[in-house]
Design a protein that fits this description.
Layout (H helix, E strand, L loop, with lengths): L9 H13 L5 H27 L1 E6 L7 H18 L12 E4 L2 H10 L11 H10 L1 H4 L16 H11 L19 E7 L4 E6 H6 L7 H8 L9 E4 L6 E5 L2 H4 L3 H10 L13 E6 L16 H23 L7 E4 L11 H6 L1 E5 L5 E7 H14 L15
Helix pairs in contact: 1-2, 3-5, 3-14, 4-5, 4-9, 7-9
């Protein structure tokens, strides 16, 4: 059995001295109150040390939409708060999270902030990634010329692919494109493989095991963004050509990849040997907006609305499941979401000022007084208390 020896703070010594010196003069009620206060202080100190030494931190970013308004605002505020609370102007999200997962446009953000610059640091800050999406949105989601009988808008796959290839290079003109192994933190990106009729998850852990599961980063982003009817299925292969897929949007099965990330950590003992259950995890799940209106004025659902319902349904189901899993310690699981959001429906300030709608264990939701911004700030306090991550950088990173 392991024993823990923690220094007792001065105020606790004061209480102990008081208890020993004056115990004969205190009545039963006063003695009980003082004893409770002493052990509350000791318990807080023990929990603080225990949490700081064991929690594995997960960041999950939903897919949905083409602008990432909610995710962008939340991530920028998250990184700003990390810098403010650590007094480190160069701190980044990857310094305080052990694994990052993303789907669709959330995957583009996740991959950009985990791509390795060649020295074990992120190639892009969150602001870089969010600005990239804003400045290159028309190239990523460039409408194709519509045919006579085509009613639904489709996007150019070539335009998206060229834009992604450009961003996942370390310098202009470099030939080599970054792969899953070129990330400074473990990464998960889901898609759905039409060949096997099953989900396929891009994983740095798998990439480091075999080149047959190592893929270029732009391909992971392209695959998870291949929404049926908007993009054609994306055919791609691994760096050694031995694994191939025909992918469509990961949002169809994992629009909220938080559950996939939790499962991955629980079963990956090589990278996360200290994790035995959800009590060892600290999870931040960031949504990407949910439309409040589900039907048109005639009371009918269009095809695009049905897709939105399916994507939101996946996200909300995962949120409910994780809410149940963390019901004994709800501060270990935090969900950021905004309701009633179209692609241009909210700005950063509105997203952060929106009140939190929290899923209750075993069903239902409740509206809290706390805002999304408040919740991120509280989460960062706990995040910073756990210290910087100690995981190794990219598995292909050579020591200096």
């Amino acid at each position: 059995m392991q024993h823990y020896n923690y220094p007792i703070p001065k105020h606790t010594f004061h209480f102990l001295s008081l208890l020993l010196t004056h115990s004969s003069k205190l009545n039963t009620m006063e003695l009980s109150k003082l004893t409770l206060e002493i052990f509350s202080k000791l318990e807080q100190q023990w929990l603080s040390h225990y949490e700081a030494s064991t929690k594995t931190r997960i960041l999950s970013i939903d897919g949905g939409g083409t602008t990432a308004i909610v995710a962008g605002a939340s991530l920028v505020h998250l990184e700003d708060q990390i810098r403010a609370q650590t007094s480190d102007p160069h701190a980044q999200i990857t310094d305080y999270f052990d694994i990052i997962a993303g789907t669709g446009i959330g995957a583009i953000l996740a991959v950009m902030i985990t791509a390795d610059d060649g020295f074990g640091r992120p190639l892009y800050t969150v602001r870089d990634a969010v600005n990239f999406l804003a400045e290159n949105n028309r190239e990523l989601y460039k409408p194709k010329r519509a045919g006579v009988f085509r009613r639904r808008r489709r996007f150019s796959a070539r335009s998206m692919e060229n834009t992604l290839k450009r961003v996942f290079k370390r310098k202009e003109g470099e030939e080599r494109l970054l792969t899953l192994k070129d990330t400074c933190k473990p990464l998960l990106v889901p898609c759905f493989d039409l060949k096997s009729s099953a989900p396929f998850v891009f994983s740095r852990a798998d990439a480091s095991e075999s080149p047959s599961f190592n893929f270029e980063l732009w391909k992971a982003c392209r695959a998870t963004s291949a929404t049926p009817g908007v993009f054609a299925p994306f055919h791609f292969s691994s760096v050694d050509g031995k694994t191939s897929c025909a992918a469509v949007d990961g949002g169809l099965v994992m629009n909220n990849p938080a559950a996939a990330a939790v499962t991955h950590v629980l079963h990956n003992k090589r990278d996360f040997p200290s994790v035995n259950g959800v009590e060892d995890l600290l999870v931040l799940s960031i949504g990407n907006g949910a439309p409040a209106k589900r039907m048109n004025n005639a009371g009918e659902c269009s095809t695009s609305m049905l897709i939105d319902i399916a994507l939101d349904g996946v996200s909300e189901t995962v949120d409910q499941m994780l809410g149940n899993a963390f019901c004994w310690n709800r501060t270990d699981y935090v969900r950021i979401q905004a309701i009633g959001l179209g692609d241009q429906g909210k700005d950063d300030e509105k997203v952060l000022n929106e009140r939190v709608l929290e899923s209750l264990p075993f069903g239902g939701k409740r509206l809290l007084q706390e805002t999304n911004g408040n919740r991120i700030e509280s989460f960062v306090q706990r995040l910073v208390a756990t210290g910087k991550t100690s995981l190794p950088p990219s598995p292909c990173k050579l020591p200096p």
